[in-house]
Design a protein that fits this description.
single chain; mainly alpha; Helix Hairpins; 4 helices
Length: 118
């Protein structure tokens, strides 16, 4: 029963992000676009794995960012420099992951798009 409960909690956390986190939903839409492009361009297994890995990295960092924000908000209601730093660093991790994902997307998709339009 404990294993089943752990899956229930994990799904609840994911659904929380889907329902209540705007940036997470934006990342999900971008993920659907990337996976649709991957199917359209019939990517190699390695290219597809790179796209999926980049997507996973962004979604995971966004979820960790959400968790850190909630924890910090519950620990203090006062302005606190360390709380600000914790939240900023977590958001920065999402930013770095998103930049990485964009670079992977460009590396994989740009040559194919250019081939289509030329």
């Amino acid at each position: 029963m404990k294993l089943i409960n752990s899956f229930k909690y994990a799904i609840a956390g994911f659904l929380h992000c889907v329902k209540r986190e705007r940036n997470f939903r934006i990342h999900l839409v971008a993920s659907v676009v990337a996976i649709s492009l991957a199917a359209f361009f019939d990517l190699s297994r390695i290219e597809f794995a790179a796209i999926i890995g980049a997507i996973a990295l962004v979604l995971v960092t966004e979820m960790i960012n959400t968790a850190i924000e909630r924890i910090v908000d519950n620990l203090t209601t006062e302005r606190n420099e360390n709380a600000k730093i914790a939240k900023d660093v977590a958001a920065g991790a999402v930013f770095v992951a998103a930049i990485f994902a964009a670079i992977v997307g460009l590396a994989v998709f740009a040559p194919r798009v250019l081939e289509l339009i030329m």
